[in-house]
Predict the structure of FMN-dependent oxidoreductase (Nitrilotriacetate monooxygenase family).
Amino acid sequence: MTKMALAVLIQGTGAHPASWLQTETAADASTDIDYYKAAAQLAERGRFDLFFIADTPAARTDNLHAWSRFPMFMNVFEPVTLLSAVASVTSHIGLGATASTSFYEPYNVARLFASLDHLSHGRAAWNVVTSANDYAARNFGLDRLPPHGERYERAREFVSVVQALWDSWEDDAFIQDRESGRNFDPAKLHVLDHHGRYFKVHGALNIARTPQGQPVIIQAGASNTGKDFAAATAEVVFASDSGVAEGRAFYQDLKGRMAKFGREPDDLKVLAGLPVVIGTSAQEAEDKYQALQSLIHPDVGRMRLSNDLEVDLSDLPLDEPVPLDRIPATSNFHQTYFANIAGMIRRGMTLRQIYMSYERGLETVRGTPIQIADRMEEWVAGGAADGFMMLFHTMPGGLRDFVELVVPELQRRGLMRADYEARTLRGHLGLKRPPNRYAQAAEVAPIAAAAE
Amino acid sequence: MTKMALAVLIQGTGAHPASWLQTETAADASTDIDYYKAAAQLAERGRFDLFFIADTPAARTDNLHAWSRFPMFMNVFEPVTLLSAVASVTSHIGLGATASTSFYEPYNVARLFASLDHLSHGRAAWNVVTSANDYAARNFGLDRLPPHGERYERAREFVSVVQALWDSWEDDAFIQDRESGRNFDPAKLHVLDHHGRYFKVHGALNIARTPQGQPVIIQAGASNTGKDFAAATAEVVFASDSGVAEGRAFYQDLKGRMAKFGREPDDLKVLAGLPVVIGTSAQEAEDKYQALQSLIHPDVGRMRLSNDLEVDLSDLPLDEPVPLDRIPATSNFHQTYFANIAGMIRRGMTLRQIYMSYERGLETVRGTPIQIADRMEEWVAGGAADGFMMLFHTMPGGLRDFVELVVPELQRRGLMRADYEARTLRGHLGLKRPPNRYAQAAEVAPIAAAAE
């Protein structure tokens, strides 16, 4: 049986809005580098493929009384510096971070992730996102996030520039021949000359091609545009469907789109987002989950829905159905979140019911280690995912429970590796090392010339 | 006697153009994270204040045959990721890196260095440069570097935005009170609303105020504009004068400018750039230096002069004086380098003589440990510097010789600390922890109100 891939998503003190209220986690963990190092080492002990840091380049600047109860985005490390520090105390686990194509320069992003790939000896991954939010837009001279279509157009160009820069040097360019005094072979440096709609870049990256050839590309877009973008360029996709049937439909849709971009289905791994709460019994797990949910302050619940639906819901009573006419005509920020909330409103749920069950399209699985392993096996065997991006509501306890109780069960079933068999993230995931585009061209050129 | 501050400048495999040809250094050291970690640990053993990485966000893309003999800028880590990895294996030494205000967004730079300050527990420093070069400009959509005055205008605005973002949160903003459910005090978050000529930023940094309050600001500008900028904002200045008299003149000029910006002379430390080659005798040191110089290929020497003088010298014979009319009327890239070369041309030196002695305004001190300590003592006692930015032509040997042979001599003389007495870079350098501008305002406001 194919092994499943496993990532862990780290968001500050835990994935739950009220995680910081749990006494198990140090209250200042979100800026405590030792907390992250220990978490990465724990995940590495659990033979995870990927330690992943979500990110938005912004603090929230309004509704501060609500955000002060849900501080997940207010006080965090910049993720690439964080992962560079973590790289020093880990040896195998992949290191992935989000960077938005809307707020960076391609040359800087190319360097950051190439540098991380070198210093981690081949463990870097870049999660390409277009969105973030208007808070981020305002930090970068914009009043609001550009429209969805424009963001994706910019993202396509951005990624193509970054990937071209990653190929600036052929793998064997640095010959370091002291006898001849030649450090590199000038013929193996390829200067990019890009004139696009959003970017003009004439230059070469100032770092050798990386151990993985290129860092792994992650995406999570679920819109039609997002899925085409992922099918064309992503190597890992974070999916967010709650049922096996929906998961399989997404999986087949996404992998089916790859052929038109000349890619094999195996060139992309779909990791289903999976929040879990583990108990010694199903009831204990349910109780733990409900205890966490009860800690969500109504102001926080209401704010999260207002933000993701992109409409102000602050005037509505908590315990009456949300009027249908409060659903906006279109979404700009995130189409899956939007559809998820709109669906619950259409089903007549009250504001409180919606925020108590809203998990941005995911659904927390509560159960014993066996039940959670069963669910994961069902999902992978059912062709709905190649693996999972695990979310733990409280840290480090949630991850520790999983590593100690669920991982051994998955290993027993042959669904997870007993030990790492590779040293790079591509190696763990079974992804090809991409050939350098210029090295290929050089091989092809003489043949074409001969044929003329 | 006042202790001298010591920084070490790391540029790939060593500060000398031919350093990579030395067999002592691994040929691939410039992207070997273990090489940098060992170097930082060595400097920490020598009780250095600062481990500093110079940077330009660009590879060279022309004259590649010459650059292939002088690969210093072609294959290096992005410096903030590098220092984040180094932070994990060091505990006291400061960690500084260059980032150009011409090619980044203030929000991203503010985050990178704030993050580094947190994860190093108060050891981060940002070297603010305006220049880099046209290679860098072309990576960021420009054809060439903007003019000197415009770069400084942008730099002033850039730094003011970054420093304001670093004050987004007051030091005691994150109360993390689980009882009340309040993670932070909203009154202690200050949203920047900046509308400037170059930047528009409405937002707050998404990380707590850093252990140092703000990372340390470094600069190196030697032009009149650059000195005013440094007097207004820098806390460390890298100087590049060769003689004590010139050094003292620069020192007094710079410190004299500070009063008009409301600053005390002690708020800024001048570190004189000091390349050294150490031998058991003066002759041995001289021989080591000359052996290195002889490895500079004429193509490399000619190219370095052409670049820093901003004029093509490729047609000139090596062993005849450079015609005076080859000196351009004005400099844009770097005024000190320009003046240095122009001076040598005016003294009638040949191209070969110039490139063999040109060190970008510095002069390598060759001598025994005692002689080098004498020179350093003379310099500091003569009021020409508060300390030194050491450059070692070959690594790790140059640094190791200095730590083992010169540092003990400086300690014996009471010129260097025997052990660290602080945990932060500000602590080492004796720099004040800057108060948060908003916290001050809050204290002042009631008094002003009462006075009305």
